[in-house]
Design a protein that fits this description.
183 residues, mainly alpha, Fumarate Reductase Cytochrome B subunit, two-stranded antiparallel sheet, 5 helices, 68% helix
């Protein structure tokens, strides 16, 4: 049996699975870089390096989500067996929608924040163009929204992980297995 890149009713394709787990690692790296940045003094090279990694990881998520969205739509939607109750299925869709909104919105807000501060937007040694002109007021506003949504992201990611574990160990359905590599 050939490995499918597209989703089928039996399983997500290798592209969707790969992007899911790569993006998970990038999201963890993004949050980690930001969280441990504060152990370095302001103005230090360590703090600056972690900030650059935070930007780079976040923008990597932003780039990959644009590949992940069509990959998610490619082919069929895998069938969860036994089927979830309708309300639970709707809640799952809402959480997935919110996670995708964060994968787009958080990096975009970070890019807007740096642009409004008049700072470079680093991405793997490149400098991305500013999205808007310099404005300290806008920078403050974008940063506040970015930080608030990032905090909400902890909750949503935790909810997503808890749901996966619930399905695996309590419901004992195939939800997690659909997204695991291998057959």
């Amino acid at each position: 049996m050939a490995i499918q890149w597209k989703n089928t009713t039996l399983k997500y394709g290798w592209l969707s699975i790969s992007l899911h787990w790569i993006m998970l690692l990038l999201i963890v790296a993004t949050y980690t870089a930001m969280d441990i940045k504060s152990i370095f003094p302001k103005g230090s090279s360590g703090r600056e390096a972690l900030a650059i990694w935070h930007y780079t990881f976040g923008l990597s998520v932003f780039c990959l989500v644009w590949l992940r969205l069509p990959a998610r739509q490619a082919g069929d939607t895998p069938v969860i067996e036994p089927a979830m109750p309708a309300l639970q299925a709707q809640l799952a869709k809402a959480v997935h929608f919110a996670l995708y909104a964060l994968m787009i919105g958080l990096p975009l807000l970070g890019w807007l924040t740096l642009s409004a501060r008049g700072k470079p937007v680093p991405f793997f040694g490149l400098e991305l163009p500013a999205l808007i002109g310099k404005s300290q007021e806008a920078a403050k506003w974008f940063k506040e929204i970015h930080e608030s949504l990032a905090t909400a992201g902890y909750f949503l990611i935790g909810l997503h992980v808890a749901a996966a574990l619930y399905h695996q160990f309590v419901k004992r359905d195939n939800t997690l297995k659909l997204m695991l590599p291998g057959r």
